[in-house]
Amino acid sequence: MEFFMNKILHIVCPHCDAVTRVPAARLGEHPKCGNCHRHLFESHPIELTGANFRKHVSRNDIPVVADFWAPWCGPCKMMAPAFEQAAARLQPRGRLAKVNTEAEQMLGAQYGNRSIPTLAMFHGGREIARQPGATGAADIIRWVNGNIAG
Ligand SMILES: [Zn+2]
To answer: 12 CA distance to ligand 1 centroid (A)?
Structure first.
């Protein structure tokens, strides 16, 4: 426990993509970026693109949950408010991010989104879990927590 509380976590800033070191014990205290001084966590999901996706999934010490979606996808739009709610509940224990697969076709192809919406969870640069299909906020939270614990 003491080890965990003293542990330093690397968090990638959603505004400038710089990596900031945050003591795990202070994660819930609205930490700010050491580079641009903006808040590292807000209640809503962040947007990831081909330019910063790799850095966020590989350099964050917290898990990154990406919602692969597209503007033309009805179920994706239906799920968006649930993902927002889940972000408000789960951050800063995990980073919730949206990837627009219509704008970011390379990422869409790379992460195999034959069906969208798809949630994929990354830790240490690797995909550790995947959940296809639209789900509600409670199910998203349960799924993320189950994969963090496991
Ligand atoms: Zn920053």
So the answer is: 8
Question: What H or E segment, with its residue span, contains residue 8?
Answer: strand 8-12
Q: Name the residue with tokens 């199910």.
A: 139
The rounded Å distance from CA 110 to ligand 1 centre is 27
Active site residues: 73, 76
Q: Residues within 5 Å of ion ligand 1 by Cβ?
A: 13, 15-16, 18, 33, 35-36
Size of the chain, expressed as the number of residues it contains: 150
Q: Is the Cβ–Cβ distance between 116 and 62 less than 8 Å?
A: no
pLDDT by position in tens, the chain (length 150): 455 567 999 999 999 999 999 999 999 999 999 999 999 999 999 999 999 999 999 999 999 999 999 999 999 999 999 999 999 999 999 999 999 999 999 998 888 767 899 999 999 999 999 999 999 999 999 999 999 865
In the chain, DSSP finds a helix count (H) and a strand count (E) of 5, 7
CA of 11 to the centre of ligand 1 (A): 10
